[in-house]
């Protein structure tokens, strides 16, 4: 689709700043609206006074829950919009001296104009995926609180007299028990929500058939890949997760080792590490690969990262193929026959 008008939107808790941008030779327009449905309707009215809404592309940053109402509004009216990473936009637009809502909205509009041939349109995830996303975020906060209480109580008991720490340790234990029960409840709710949606449940069953992929890893993959529709192949997913190695060379003077980029989803990367560690504990293709790399003299972390990438490749393969993961040669021969 050919876009003739680009609207960059900077979203905050109470307001949204919009900049209408057509080209570098034409003036841009700025207006602020409330971050609520009535403000969104005023935004469309403001745009229609200047341009036809048929060829408009809206560009906005990922701002979590603050952007969700606007995305729902665009989705209901079938308007074209693109959610972009703030880091991607910032590093693509050169030097920026000003920092305010209007400047950020202008930068987003200009980004959409410059990359209009490459930019990907966004789609609102299904209700099931949105519920899973919020539950995962809540679970992560619960785990963080639980770990903080556990460490504080252990350190207090180890370095202070019992008469000073006993009350705090006992009270902390009560909260830890309650948080543990809440985490278990969240896991049950995740399984219930996944089971209620046929498509999500089918993809979940395929993903968890791979050795080392459990509830948490599969749920995070479902959310961040939009039920595996956001990535064409496992290499792009590995790049997103931060497990893809990149070379470090320049001319004839710099010949560094290939290494992982720090730009990636750290939570997903950690979950894949847990899955890789679990996968190599039993005899299978992952442990065989890991042991072979160790025998070749590769560092353990390099070998483990290879297992992480193998997990991603197997998950993508089973989802695209539509059949469960084949764990051993006997199963493969049975399926082939």
TrEMBL record:
It holds the Pfam family DEDD_Tnp_IS110. Residues 205-290 form the Transposase IS116/IS110/IS902 C-terminal domain. Residues 7-151 form the Transposase IS110-like N-terminal domain. GO terms for molecular function: DNA binding; transposase activity. One of its GO terms (biological process) is DNA transposition. PANTHER family: PUTATIVE TRANSPOSASE FOR IS117-RELATED, TRANSPOSASE FOR INSERTION SEQUENCE ELEMENT IS1111A. This is IS110 family transposase. The lineage of its organism: Bacteria, Pseudomonadati, Bacteroidota, Cytophagia, Cytophagales.
